[in-house]
Design brief:
By secondary structure, this protein is an alpha+beta fold. It is about 30% helix and about 20% strand. It has a four-stranded antiparallel sheet with strand order 2-3-1-4. The protein is globular. The two termini are about 25 Å apart.
Length: about 110
């Protein structure tokens, strides 16, 4: 399949630079043991992105589940959508599910 068929740019598909992107990484205490949080890309999208943060799907270019099941890259459509994300993240960062992640901007 071509990367355009997957809704991603060639750079995103090939591991190149991702614009307007953040990375959610599970904190170490939620990667194994009794507190292990195991989410598929779809579960992550529904429970964290849409339900907990209230992000609307049209804002998102793509969500990439990184190998190991402990991190996800979320690419937003444009700078305005990324700015909306940070406002919502700052509003809801104390929510239980959100506190299980380290969230960082990707260059």
């Amino acid at each position: 399949r071509r990367s355009s068929d997957l809704g991603m740019s060639v750079g995103q598909y090939s591991g190149g630079p991702r614009h307007f992107c953040v990375r959610f990484t599970l904190k170490s205490e939620f990667r194994e043991g009794d507190q292990k949080l195991s989410l598929t890309r779809s579960q992550f999208s529904r429970s964290v992105i849409q339900q907990s943060l209230g992000i609307e799907l049209p804002w998102i270019n793509c969500i990439i589940a990184l190998p190991g099941g402990a991190a996800w890259d979320v690419s937003f459509r444009d700078a305005e959508c990324l700015a909306r994300f940070w406002k919502l993240y700052n509003k809801y960062e104390d929510e239980d599910i959100i506190q299980k992640f380290c969230v960082s901007a990707l260059p």
